[in-house]
Records
---
Amino acid sequence: MHPYILSMAAPLAACILFSIAAKRYYESKAEKTYQSLLQMLDQALQGSTLENVYDESMDAAVAARLNRLVHITRTHRQSAEQERDTIKALISDISHQIRTPLTNLMLYTGLLKEQPLCDSALHLVEKLEKQSGKLDFFMKELVKSSYAEQEMIAIHPQRTDAAELIRTACQEAELAAMKKQIVIDTDLRAAEGIFCCADKKWTVEAAANVLENAVKYSPEQSVIKVSAILYESFLCIQVKDEGIGIREEEQGLVFGRFYRSEDVKETQGFGIGLYLVREVLRRQGGFARIRSDYGKGTAVQLFLSRVYGGGEMAVK
């Protein structure tokens, strides 16, 4: 081989080796930088403040900006939580303040209707009764609509007596059932002495929504059967009516927010109740299921995790 070529080969090989070594070095350095940045981002996403680095490196600059971002996010979250709590308290207060006079108004209207009245006075009382009923309906729907915001549903599950929970929910729907001469037939033998993991207030609200729907879409003088079914891990509350039923293709849609079937467009409602039912159950480890024979009736099943002696849940 020519001496000139040999003299050039050695420096060229050295350059190639240097280039390879430099490439690997910078790739390794870049990977470490990316890993460090990912760790910083993970900490920031978890809401943790990053350790301050007091130098002029790029890591210090990134950490400082991420700390500012975490601080701003915390401030906004705290502000949002305070506003949410204020709105919840306001809605609760308003609904309570309206509920009492409205209940009295409906009671006095009913008593007045039972008095001997001339036809014109009776006609006015019936109109008053109808308008009071509308006001009661819209107030309930307004409260439900506000609760439909997920942040407003604050669930705190605990050991709850299943039979007592079901009885309380049935009492909530008793007046509406009486107006349509509907019998709520309860069979709670399976629930006696059984405990479930549930937020009692919200779960009663959910079960009452199901019962109110059953009353709303059932014919007068029909029967709504409420029963409890035990499984190894769950307690099932079943509400079975003799109403209009739900088409098979819609049974998976009725728990959607604001969803209403074309079959019930003429009936008052906003499609909030079953959405709340699903959210309340989901947030405490339960779920809801519908079985319906269109035109013959619907069975809504609410599943809640059972709690055995000592307070340990069957499932999480």
---
Amino acid sequence: MIYYPLTTLMLAGVREVLVITTPHEQAGFQALLGDGSQWGVELQYAVQHVPNGLAQAFVIGADFVAGQPSALVLGDNIFFGHGLVDQLQRAAARASSESGGATVFGYRVSDPERYGVAEVDAAGKVLSIEEKPARPRSNYAVTGLYFYDTQVVDIAANLAPSARGEYEITDVNAEYLRRGQLHMELLGRGYAWLDTGTYDSLLEAGSFVHTLQKRQGLQVASPDEIAFRAGWITAQQLAANAEPMAKNPYGQYLQRLAAEGPAG
């Protein structure tokens, strides 16, 4: 499932990605993903030595962000839906616009008291946001996908630790809400948001993806295909990526794509 966070960003048009890992996991990620050039993207790596919270990503990655809009996606989140690309690109465009602001993605759940919950108006502007509220004001949980304008690094750098001693991404979002700049893209019927942080949820996600791929004959979240369709790599580059995997179904899938061309 490692590819899913990366491909979510690629679908949003993001081509420069900082992968933040624990110290002992970094070498494995580098061996698997490389520098990203095989997909026409640039991958860099950084370490979070102590698990001090999600917002610390913008402190660790301050030089990487370098005053540009940015996005954050959690490594165990999977998103799927027919209109997802449009929503991702809309969130990226909002972060880059003159008015700026932040965008979170909301997913309807039956047990919102277990999540961070946002209340939104008809235009998608967030009216309130609460972490695991006893009486939720909506059923929309805030997922692990966030788009921010250039203010985010300074906001994250000035956070105080929460009661559990972490720098919370919820506090970043709360500051954007205070400034009247927090928006939500709602993932409605027909979308899937899967959190693979436990063995059971990982198994469920694997079954979901397997069913889709077997039924449709299409790969879900293939970085090679996304890069090819976007014109970031050529058919020749795609075929070269497929060559080491020519004896397995994924490599054969890429070979068919290369033969069919981008519009295939």
---
Amino acid sequence: MFTGIVEEIGTIRQVEMGRHSAVLHIDAKEILTDIHIGDSIAVNGVCLTVTALRADGFAADAMHETLNRTTLAALKNGSHINLERAMAADGRFGGHIVAGHVDGVGTIVKLQRDDTAVWYTVQAPPTIMRYIIEKGSIAVDGISLTVAKVSADSFSVSVIPHTVRVTALGERKTGDKVNLENDMIGKYVEKLLGKDAAAEATQSALTREFLIKHGY
């Protein structure tokens, strides 16, 4: 489990591509503290398992499913990536619940400066947009961000200078692909309500009567 608070920008040292999988060799420094083989690390928001350690980095396997569903297949030598260790039980919960299980890929369609902040508008498929709400949370390349605006096929986030500076988001440009993970709370609520109830909720406004009917 992660919080979406990126700890370090790492660098891809080497990508060993197999037929349907890859081994990522990653240079890092800060996150190597208290990391062991078998631990989980979020790489651009994707939960990967450490399979080897060096004094200045680590290696992790990316399976066929992972490469198909994320942007990891596009990484190359020298690519900068967001890194976060799994949340410690005694740590502060600074972001939101991030599982490291990417729901889909979005495309940055607009960048706009607003004084010191930068607005990123991301176009996403309906399977992602259905769970996005204004002022809700979204993980973009593993970064916990607050949704500021929502349209039919995109959402926007206003990012503070610190986040731009300490993550790889500052290198992203229009047309770049990003990994997206929805806040899991909405997905669990939909699952618990069942398909019929979820369909009913999407066809009409959420009302007090609807919530009472389904035990809320």
